[in-house]
């Protein structure tokens, strides 16, 4: 039998085990499956050694353009990841464990998640956090559902400046719920407050905004929470956690719920996943939170310890009445987020945020000097901004890809009439030299 | 152990950042800036590394302990999978959506496409979406597909049928798609009660969600009949792939009437569980459901031989997540699958079932076995015998912790009193199982001889038994600054 | 002060500590160094962030030809390394600990080294092993010194078929000792037994041979031990541990001491290091062994445990009378060797050895078909063999390097008159396709 | 824990090998084949991984515990160093020696050359060889250079002078090069007795080997005078770089009269100690010794700007090891050095000295301090006060183990009775040191109050105190099959 990887038994052991069970072959154990239902098996190829398999994966990896100079973001950001993040999240005790159902032998995961929740609370300026959601986009949808539960209302108003992908996920999540989703078209790349006022009514559960928004703008949301609250609605803010190193926190803004994608905190781009979603809220909403929550308690001797708590919200207890169906979350990615924040540190995150903005402002100023190029935003931006080009952005981006530069995300695919618009992202990893090369290459592309 | 915040020292710096090579920008307006710097840890790198290294040492894990947590398939996580996944770390997902972008990620798209094909083949489905980020997310995606199917056909459907042995995620996922739940009790023989099922079925049922083998570890021999009945009402059959590890190469969900199936890559295909995730829950569907699959979808262009990306489709349910799902997890599953190959995966299921039946046979004299027939990959005992002495399943669990074993799943499935659900997986050796069996028998004996001794357990861990009520009452879920 | 990586103190803490010490500046602590001796410091460049540093190292790595199709060996072999080897030797508790001076809190390292010693004993068929030496070459020198101590003699006879690099290291080690080193010129690529007989006299401490030898030959050394012992000398064999998967062990041959390089057991090529040297011997020689040795014992409760033992041989006790000056050895590399052997397993090492030989025999046969190419050895070979070419090997190798193939090691640099000789190595990692490409490319090169 | 051999099962296979794609060769003649397959472990990959993971958990280490092991400089090992070193894993050393080979490894050669230049700069030397594989190996290489120098000059030399506080490797290395040893006692003030040194010097002395600061942590203020005296006899000054961490940017061995110096990259330059190695011991020399350096030597060709390899030199001592030394270790040290840079390395020494003096000040009231002056990077106490109660230095060590601290070096240097040698290193935070100081004080108090309690320690480890005598007597150094 021992023809395969990771199946340990010798033929002798298999015979011993079969004898103990009282059958004469492994096949007999499959007798409960009626013969008529049995398959003639499947057609996967023959297995390989680890060496050959890894070589094959190296070839697969090599068949991608992984060395582009990245000026794209759109929710996934090319940030530095300290080496310690990989080494520590690579501790087998972390990554080969599962959900800490048995707290006494899982204090490592539990304490780390408690520390993660604390980091998220402090970053967002809110009171409570869960132990992670799948990603920022599903987090936004969960926040909308949470707000609906909290307010017992069914209307969700989302700013059209929120990431288009996240809005699609939101729409999909709400599509079969008893819910009404209203999207506010952007006004000059900002929230249309007049339209919002019209949509705030007695059935409005939540207003969903994002900062920096999809165009890169860091909007002044002063008064927005009051406006929502006056109508009995909650304010939900989607945030970019690195930007929170310097930007006003959701808590500062009076938001009730904050969500975001944690990829930028120590998780590699990895073609879009795994990442993690975070969600934080005012304390009063804790029982409406989706997902796992770790809480502090004591043991029989009064010693501090940590457990999964408020499980009565969850699917394994509450089944169809649970606050969400989520079971496995993105625990290891959240741990990476915590390690990243601990490695960079309090002042470090602020510095990192400033460094991003410095690089982006430099790029913005340089690009604005090019003939025919204009910066969209009048609002301040963080590490992402939108420029309009004198020709279709798609063509320009294609031309720069040939030079190894991913110059930005063309907006035309998301907003009608934005065919000449390009969102450019500049993280701390982009050197001045790379930025100058982008500017030069764009100049050439615009001349052609 | 102190919290990392308790170890922080004001003003201490961790990892250094690059020095800026561009001019400093003018400050943002004050009204956009946060009032105070977020109270993150302030640690030296060594202190930070020591903190997390020591935290890790407070966990049981597959690499340190036998971890027979039923329904979770805690098999060995091959180390090469980690290396393989790291190969793709720098690939930005938007690359694929730039003009001509598919051309720039043929490797990644091809891997996803091949993974989908292999999963379709194993499950007997026609196409697979890799977008769902975990099992429950796959369930929700699957139910969205079911809803879209009925909507397109003009069917008026209101209910989803689940057996009472199902995972809690099944009804919860159906509820997220707006369905009401009809729960069918389990018959004395351990399968969903067939008669009650028949009575429950009607034209208003959108789907029947089944785990097969179910959470009792039993394969339902009437599954085809159930599917036929469901289809006669134009209800779709949903297969919860949580227990796929039991049946690879033996039976394919698609062949016995299932229309939608999700697969937990982190269970059957050996990707690590990460202390709670990330998982990955690709969903396979029969042809009739392909038009509703979420976007983006990867299409193999027969003419060019290249992979292309479809981003829009009027019937699509939309998007259930960013991009293509938990890509890094899929790299691991793909690596696992091509490494084991056809024969290897069949052997996985065979030895998973062998191990569970061995465990069943060796322990059935010591623990109550509510369902005695041949099991598949896991076996469910009850501590009801021990309960007579005042020893609960949770007490047995704590006994095991002190002996260096991660406990089996306890109190699930809900329909078994004092359930103890053991899933050894195929990667455990006989010696490990024999040692565990011995300790389980020791627990049974001690429950007879000295039932009071269990209350103090565990004693070998950094903490003794924790007060869960207090946690729920105090709601202390973060550390105030 | 806090300007640098890894120095944790804040300015406030430094002030507190200085106050506790009773000085006013750190500089005061350097007062014991006379002012006249103080340097005006050194000229290293300014430091960098981790991100920039790693990017620099990536550039340094890229400035090497690391993707050659390798048909070179010469003591360093391109073997598979199971992924688990990196993961397990990468456990911080292993690699950030030091020599296990305090045994109770070092049982991990100690038990692993005991298991390593056992693996080496079983592989070599000898009784005792130490916990590692630096590498195979210094191991050969240490074995010679050990034989000199054991026999109280000063003459060392080494076969000229032993690796030329190892012989150079041997000569260097013996150069200032009271020792006479005799090298026996090879006879048709084999040990010259007649010459050996002449050199065996009452002062001969040891005969040093290697198998497979530098030309690749696996020589029949039957009777050699008896011959040496008859003269009162010890037989020392240098061995390639992967070949021992199938080849007669030093113990089988009656050797007294066996040494070898452990790189091929789970250690990357890494431009030649770190690797490890192993040394094993008959039990009677244990007190003459160099380096650390781990021994089994019991604790106060009779429980088995492991300690460094026979330390009276070592420099930290015996100082200039020690068996060797070695202190730090190559512990982590030896651990990798053990993990490699445990991963591959008993039958696996035999299979691996066969696979190597199969690949090499295929290549040998194909190469021998080329016009003007002849195989040197009449003796059997393992995964390495010598061919003679119709033109200088250096030129041929240079031509193939241009095609990304490292075709073999030209022998001319080591043996006068061997300018047309090439040693070709074929490990299990070379696919049939690569071998066929080598043959094809060599054919082309020989025609030009 | 069972030995891996005790866990083996006959016939069990581990990692699978590639299937051969070539014909099987005919068997080797029987007389060349081993009589039986070597009795290596037979484990599943999971059992093997679990074995070593659990073994690792039985170690103290820098990443888990404060590890103030004097004379070993157990500083933080930055994780990026591991990643950097892995970048060079596939580079075959013979590549450099193929025709035109230097051209194929300019990156690696350049790194080695730059590393040598930086080390030369830090130590005040003119050229560095990276070949030596550890500190002691560097010492031997250095002494071979000394011998070659004298031989070339026709000097007849017989002795090497070392102070009695020296590391055991110093006399052992000198002995390996055929020298006899003259040992100079330490004067009451902690430095080598200057008068006795002067008396010992003669034309027959080949070299004086010094560690400076010495193993008492003290910098010898007469070092220049000592060097001058040595040079007056044409004896060379050898610098044992074990304690270089104390003086970077403050004093350079080359500037105060040393001719040869070895550097322990695994101490001063942050490469991990690996449970006993690998280390790396590059040797720097003054111009007069360059002709004798071992081969191969890397040369920077000014004209082409390329690195070249010199493989032969008539005066060279030959080769002390394969190729260029422990290259992977050097990559780590190089990474560390360019990352910290000039200011960073100076700060390293400053804070290493600050930490040691803080430790000294805080503990001097509790433990006997034989030498009271300002120390450099480490401080040596004596447990002589405690010995009066019957508590030995080793007992204090075991007390510390139970408190979660790796003990300091004990019983070294040999000249201090019951020595306790503490080297905190610069990477430890004040909080860590304060906690350690508290525990040391607790030990001192307990030695007064309850000296008998120490004999049972440690109690928190997998084993209690081990019987070293029995190990030496039984000589069980491997497990019989």
From TrEMBL, chains A, C:
Keyword presence, Oxidoreductase: yes
InterPro entries to which the protein is assigned, alphabetical: GcvPA (IPR023010), GDC-P_N (IPR049315), GDC_P (IPR020581), PyrdxlP-dep_Trfase (IPR015424), PyrdxlP-dep_Trfase_major (IPR015421), PyrdxlP-dep_Trfase_small (IPR015422)
Residues of the Glycine cleavage system P-protein N-terminal domain: 5-442
BP GO annotations: glycine decarboxylation via glycine cleavage system; nucleoside metabolic process
Gene3D superfamilies, per the entry: Aspartate Aminotransferase, domain 1, Type I PLP-dependent aspartate aminotransferase-like (Major domain)
UniProt function note: The glycine cleavage system catalyzes the degradation of glycine. The P protein binds the alpha-amino group of glycine through its pyridoxal phosphate cofactor; CO(2) is released and the remaining methylamine moiety is then transferred to the lipoamide cofactor of the H protein.
UniProt protein name: Probable glycine dehydrogenase (decarboxylating) subunit 1
Gene: gcvPA
TrEMBL record, chains B, D:
GO cellular component: cytosol; glycine cleavage complex
InterPro entries documented for this protein: Aminotrans_V_dom (IPR000192), GDC-P_C (IPR049316), GDC_P (IPR020581), PyrdxlP-dep_Trfase (IPR015424), PyrdxlP-dep_Trfase_major (IPR015421), PyrdxlP-dep_Trfase_small (IPR015422)
EC number assigned by the record: 1.4.4.2
Keywords from the UniProt entry: Oxidoreductase, Pyridoxal phosphate
Stored Gene3D superfamilies: 6.20.440.10, Aspartate Aminotransferase, domain 1 (3.90.1150.10), Type I PLP-dependent aspartate aminotransferase-like (Major domain) (3.40.640.10)
Keyword Signal attached: no
Domain of life, per lineage: Bacteria
Gene Ontology MF: a single term: glycine binding
Domain Glycine dehydrogenase C-terminal intervals: 349-447
Reactions catalysed: N(6)-[(R)-lipoyl]-L-lysyl-[glycine-cleavage complex H protein] + glycine + H(+) = N(6)-[(R)-S(8)-aminomethyldihydrolipoyl]-L-lysyl-[glycine-cleavage complex H protein] + CO2
Biological process annotations from GO: glycine decarboxylation via glycine cleavage system
Annotated Pfam families: Aminotran_5, GcvP2_C
Keyword Cytoplasm: no
Domain Aminotransferase class V: 145-274
NCBIfam families registered for this protein in UniProt: PRK04366.1
General function of this protein: The glycine cleavage system catalyzes the degradation of glycine. The P protein binds the alpha-amino group of glycine through its pyridoxal phosphate cofactor; CO(2) is released and the remaining methylamine moiety is then transferred to the lipoamide cofactor of the H protein.
Protein name per UniProt: glycine dehydrogenase (aminomethyl-transferring)
């Amino acid at each position: 039998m021992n023809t395969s990887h990771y199946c340990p038994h010798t033929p002798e052991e298999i015979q011993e085990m079969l004898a103990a069970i009282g059958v004469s072959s492994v096949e007999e154990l499959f007798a409960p499956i009626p013969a008529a239902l049995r398959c003639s098996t499947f057609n996967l190829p023959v297995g390989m050694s680890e060496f050959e398999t890894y070589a094959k994966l190296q070839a697969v990896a090599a068949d991608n353009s992984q060395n582009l100079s990245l000026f794209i973001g759109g929710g996934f950001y090319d940030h530095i990841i300290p080496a310690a993040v990989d080494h520590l999240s690579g501790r087998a005790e972390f990554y080969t464990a599962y959900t800490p159902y048995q707290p006494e032998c899982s204090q490592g995961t539990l304490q780390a998640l408690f520390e993660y929740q604390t980091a998220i609370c402090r970053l967002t300026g809110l009171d409570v956090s869960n132990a992670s959601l799948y990603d920022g986009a599903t987090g936004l949808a969960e926040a909308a559902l949470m707000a609906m539960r909290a307010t017992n209302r069914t209307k969700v108003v989302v700013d059209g400046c929120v990431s288009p992908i996240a809005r699609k996920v939101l729409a999909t999540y709400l599509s079969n719920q008893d819910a009404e989703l209203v999207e506010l078209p952007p006004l000059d790349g900002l929230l249309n407050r007049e339209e919002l006022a019209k949509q705030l009514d007695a059935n409005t559960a939540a207003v969903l905004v994002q900062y920096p928004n999809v165009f890169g703008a860091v909007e002044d949301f002063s008064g927005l929470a009051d406006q929502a609250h006056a109508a009995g609605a909650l304010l939900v803010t989607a945030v970019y956690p690195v930007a929170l190193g310097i930007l006003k926190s959701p808590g500062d803004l009076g938001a009730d719920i904050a969500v975001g994608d944690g990829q930028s905190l120590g998780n590699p781009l990895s073609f879009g996943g795994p990442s993690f979603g975070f969600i934080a809220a005012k304390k009063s909403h804790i029982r409406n939170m989706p997902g796992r929550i770790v809480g502090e308690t004591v043991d029989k001797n009064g010693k501090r310890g940590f457990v999964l708590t408020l499980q009565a919200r969850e699917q394994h207890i509450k089944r169809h009445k649970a606050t969400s169906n989520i079971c496995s979350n993105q625990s290891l990615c959240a741990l990476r987020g915590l390690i990243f924040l601990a490695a960079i540190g309090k002042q470090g995150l602020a510095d990192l945020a400033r460094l991003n903005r410095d690089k982006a402002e430099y790029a913005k100023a340089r690009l604005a000097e090019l003939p025919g190029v204009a910066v969209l935003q009048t609002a301040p931006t963080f590490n992402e901004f939108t420029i309009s080009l004198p020709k279709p952005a798609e063509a320009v981006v294609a031309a720069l890809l040939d030079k190894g530069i991913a110059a930005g995300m063309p907006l035309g695919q998301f907003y009608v009439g934005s065919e000449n618009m390009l969102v450019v992202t500049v993280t701390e990893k982009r050197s001045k030299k790379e930025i100058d090369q982008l500017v030069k290459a764009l100049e050439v592309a615009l001349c052609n | 152990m102190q919290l990392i915040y308790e170890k922080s020292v004001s003003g201490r710096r961790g990892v250094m950042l690059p020095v800026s090579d561009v001019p400093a920008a003018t400050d943002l307006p004050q009204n956009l800036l946060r009032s105070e710097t977020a109270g993150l840890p302030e640690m030296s790198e060594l202190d930070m590394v020591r903190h997390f290294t020591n935290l890790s040492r407070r966990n049981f894990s597959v690499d340190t302990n036998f971890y027979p947590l039923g329904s979770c398939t805690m098999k060995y996580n091959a180390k090469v999978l980690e290396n393989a996944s790291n190969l793709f770390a720098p690939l930005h997902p938007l690359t694929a959506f730039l003009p001509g972008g598919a051309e720039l990620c043929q490797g990644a798209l091809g891997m996803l496409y091949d993974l989908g094909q292999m999963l379709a083949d194993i499950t007997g489905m026609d196409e697979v979406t890799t977008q769902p980020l975990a099992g429950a997310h796959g369930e929700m995606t699957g139910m969205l597909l079911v809803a879209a199917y009925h909507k397109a056909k003009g069917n008026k459907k209101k209910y989803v049928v689940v057996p009472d042995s199902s995972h809690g995620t099944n009804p919860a996922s159906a509820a997220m798609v707006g369905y009401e739940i009809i729960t069918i009790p389990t018959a004395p023989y351990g399968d969903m009660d067939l008669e009650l099922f028949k009575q429950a079925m009607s034209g208003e049922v959108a789907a029947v969600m089944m785990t097969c083998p179910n959470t009792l570890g039993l394969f339902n021999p009437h599954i085809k009949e159930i599917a036929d009945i469901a289809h006669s009402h134009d209800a779709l059959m949903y297969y919860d792939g949580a227990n796929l590890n039991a049946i690879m190469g033996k039976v394919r969900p698609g062949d016995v009437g299932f229309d939608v199936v999700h697969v937990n890559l982190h269970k059957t295909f050996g990707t690590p569980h990460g202390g709670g995730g990330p998982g990955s829950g690709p969903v396979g569907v029969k042809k009739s459901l392909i038009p509703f699959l979420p976007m983006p979808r990867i299409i193999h262009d027969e003419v060019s031989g290249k992979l292309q990306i479809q981003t829009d489709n009027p019937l699509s349910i939309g998007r259930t997540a960013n991009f293509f799902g938990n890509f890094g997890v899929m790299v691991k599953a793909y690596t696992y699958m091509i490494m084991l190959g056809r024969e290897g995966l069949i052997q996985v299921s065979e030895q998973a079932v062998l191990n569970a039946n061995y465990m069943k046979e060796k322990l059935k004299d010591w623990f109550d076995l509510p369902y005695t027939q041949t099991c598949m990959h896991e076996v469910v005992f009850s501590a009801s015998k021990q309960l007579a002495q005042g020893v609960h399943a949770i007490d047995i669990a704590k006994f095991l912790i002190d002996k260096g074993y991660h406990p089996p799943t306890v109190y699930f499935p809900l329909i078994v009193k004092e359930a103890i659900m053991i899933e050894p997986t195929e990667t455990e050796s006989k010696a490990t199982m024999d040692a565990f069996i011995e300790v389980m028998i020791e627990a049974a004996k001690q429950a007879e001889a000295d039932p009071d001794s269990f209350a103090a357990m565990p004693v070998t861990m950094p903490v003794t038994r924790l007060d869960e009520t207090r946690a729920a009452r105090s709601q202390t879920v973060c550390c105030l600054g």
